User: Fold this.
Amino acid sequence: MDWYVVPGVFALLLAAGGTATLRTGWVPPWLRHKVRRVALHGWAQLVMAGSFALQSAAGFAGEPAASSAVGLVALAALLAALILLLVAQLGPRGD
Assistant:
């Protein structure tokens, strides 16, 4: 199996979960007691899916410098998504 398949699968799963959260408000049962802001949680999942998709796409960049740049952008997006997930667990329940 190639190394870029795993981040691609994670991207698809997170995109499906984020879309379901934004459209229906569904949160997995093991996260229901933690998530306070449902919509923000859905957006964080979509940002994380984009980050994993970028990591998967970095393998197709022709030059090592371009691959490194895409990887750094993906890392920054992943950190932003983790901050959004943290903020989604703080504050009043609702959305």
Observations:
- Residues 64-88 form the longest helix (25 residues).
- The two ends are 41 Å apart (CA to CA).
